[in-house]
Design goal:
348 residues; 2 domains; TIM Barrel; Type Iii Antifreeze Protein Isoform Hplc 12; alpha/beta; eight-stranded parallel sheet
Length: 348
């Protein structure tokens, strides 16, 4: 996969630093002012993009369909409809949020959850789309998004390989030319142990596309590791403060952590370099600090070289240490002072 994906002023590719997405989700807590503050904090932290979710309770579910009862769930006891009513981002907020994000140099886009939300986002000229894990087998939505012709980032949580294969085919057959698949574990929060980052190269090779990570773990360590395994996109939920609450706040990064994510993933990317073994150009000046043979005790002409008067020392101005045993027992042809780098012309 060598074709770059151009999104606004950013490039997604193996040769570019990771594309960092701050997922606002419902962490605005139904305050537009807080949403704008989240945009500012993401920009200040150095993220590349801010992502919303575009749905209403009625476009995503139906009242009475399900009450969450999983043990350990952040939302146990809450009806699905009520959760989405609390978490959704009012559609009239999208334009001011997007406009402010663009002013701050952020790419602003969203995850649509039905056909009407795609139409709405098209009117706002979003530059790309994200498909959430729970929507990645909704062929109606996939076809609608693919037909926009814009790049698609799709999470692969709660999906079999067959599910992913079928969904990728639907996207490509309906016009999607630029695709990034995100490894995702759809638990909230996720643990490092169930992140299975070694699936990243598999995603890339099986589906001939870029791979990334939608990371629901705490901290930034898993995301940094993902970059080493080839992730070109990292998505993390983002909030101003976990202590202030919010539907996704418990597993969201705070501003200092997002800044750390940006810095450390770029360091990981830069650290990958090339498959090269040898002396780096930056190391050339330091070759002199390697070892060589030195006179460590004054020697008279005709005196033999012994373990007491020559030794391996820095810098590397003398004869190579590979010749140590060869030189032992040979004699000096001149007086030699301690601290002299041993050279062949000093040896009889």
């Amino acid at each position: 996969m060598n074709i770059e994906i151009k999104v606004a002023n950013r490039i997604i590719s193996n040769n570019s630093k990771p594309f960092i997405i701050a997922e606002m989700s419902g962490n605005h807590n139904q305050s537009l002012d807080r949403a704008i503050q989240i945009v500012d904090a993401a920009a200040n932290a150095g993220a590349d993009a801010i992502k919303l979710q575009t749905y209403t309770a009625d476009t995503i579910t139906v009242k009475g369909a399900l009450t969450i009862n999983e043990e350990g769930s952040l939302w146990k006891g809450k009806e699905l409809y009520d959760l989405y009513k609390e978490a959704y981002t009012p559609w009239e907020w999208h334009k001011p949020i997007f406009e402010h994000a663009n002013k701050r140099g952020l790419i602003a886009f969203s995850s649509p959850f039905d056909e009407t939300s795609v139409d709405f986002l098209e009117n706002l000229n979003v530059p790309l789309y994200k498909i959430a894990s729970f929507e990645n087998t909704d062929h109606i939505l996939l076809k609608k998004v693919a037909k926009t012709g814009k790049p698609v980032i799709m999470s692969t949580g709660v999906s079999t390989i067959a599910d992913i294969d079928e969904s990728v085919r639907v996207l490509r057959e309906n016009g999607c030319k630029h695709l990034v698949l995100l490894k995702c574990t759809s638990t909230y929060p996720a643990s490092p142990e169930n992140s299975n980052l070694q699936a990243l190269p598999l995603l890339r090779s099986l589906f001939n596309c870029y791979a990334g990570l939608s990371d629901h773990t705490m901290g930034v360590g898993v995301s940094v590791a993902a970059v080493v395994l080839g992730a070109v996109v990292i998505e993390k939920h983002f909030t101003l403060s976990r202590a202030e609450g919010g539907v996704d706040a418990a597993f969201s990064l705070e501003p200092d952590e997002l800044k750390s994510l940006v810095v450390e993933t770029e360091r990981a990317f830069l650290g990958l370099g090339k498959p090269f073994l040898g002396i780096q150009p930056a190391e050339k000046e330091n070759v002199k600090y390697k070892r060589s043979l030195y006179i460590v005790k004054d020697i008279k002409a005709g005196e033999a070289f012994t373990k007491e008067n020559i030794d391996s020392k820095r810098p590397a101005f003398g004869v190579h240490t590979r010749n140590y045993e060869l030189i032992l027992g040979k004699k000096a042809n001149v007086d030699i002072r301690q601290g002299t780098a041993l050279s062949w012309d000093l040896i009889k």
